[in-house]
Amino acid sequence: MKKIVFTDLDGTFLNHHDYSYEESLSSLSRLIKSDIPIIFTTSKTRSEVEELHKQLGINEPFIVENGATIFIPKGYKNKDFSFLESFDEKYYYCKIGEDYTLILEFYNKYKDEFTLTGFSSMSIEQIQELTFLSYEKAKLASKRDFTEPFILKDENQTESLKQKALAYGLTLTKGGRFYHLIGAKQDKGKAVKKAIEIFEKLFNEKFFSIALGDGENDLPMLEVVDLPIAIKNHKGLFVETKNKEILKSTYQGAKGFKEMITKCLENY
Asked: Quick check: helix, strand or coil at residue 55?
């Protein structure tokens, strides 16, 4: 059966603290050589993923901003994805989330009441300080299309804020560093499910799906694949899941990614 891999970036393919992907490179190379699609499934923006793809020398599909949109390069594996909408000359896309205008409307309405500090309120230097990204990378992170990462001063207000968001057709999810204000109909799981459906329709065969992640926002993705893998997070813990079949890495970040991809390719 054909395989397809979905992976979170921060804390999984990339290290949490220094964003290094050195340990992941050999496994990435094996996946590409084996003709296995590797789909970055992240809270990062399209600009950030494009830059990472450029650094890695790959041109794969990807899912951005916590399942908001699936982007598929035109001509990918010489298949015709034209049944999807055309985003621009480079991509077809499938949008699941909401427009950033609606997200900002809600954020601006409630930011004072709940003491929220989102990316739209921060300077590039402030984003840098919180993420430890370079100035250029922080700039790419600020280019939002669908979601708003933010800091919530009082975490006891999470549920109350979530109820307000749901009335707006929005919801909250938690990543490694920030809360994210996202469309209520989106999450990584829905996007992964849709991507698998697209691939199976086009290739006319079943895919064995694998997903790797370390954060709460990865749980929906880990719940919809054939082989879920929890990567040990930067606190040395695993996301809490009821799935007893989930595999767990020994190592954190990129080293954990390499460990588990090696295991998958040798045993599945």
From this structure: helix
Q: How far apart are CA 263 and CA 268, in angstroms?
A: 8
Strands 207-213 and 2-7: parallel
Task: Assign 3-state DSSP to the chain and report helix, strand, coil percentages, each to 5.
Answer: 40, 25, 35
Closest of 264, 172, 174 to residue 211, by C-alpha: 264
Burial (CB count <10 Å: 0-12, 13-18, 19+), residue 37? buried
Distances (CA, A) of 213 to 42, 115, 180, 194: 9, 29, 16, 18
The pLDDT of residue 243 is above 80: no
8 is an active site residue: yes
Choice among 8, 10, 187, 218 that is catalytic? 8
- Residue of 20, 4, 18, 11 lying closest to 42 (CA atoms): 11
The C-alpha atoms of residue 10 and residue 233 are separated, in whole angstroms, by 10
> What integer best gives the mean pLDDT of the chain?
96
Q: What is the pTM of this model?
A: 0.94
Q: For residue 69, what are the β-bridge partners?
A: 64, 95
pLDDT in tens, 6-44: 999 999 999 999 999 999 999 999 999 999 999 999 999
The DSSP string of 93-147 is: EEE-S--HHHHHHHHHHHTTTTTEEEGGGS-HHHHHHHH---HHHHHHHH--SS-
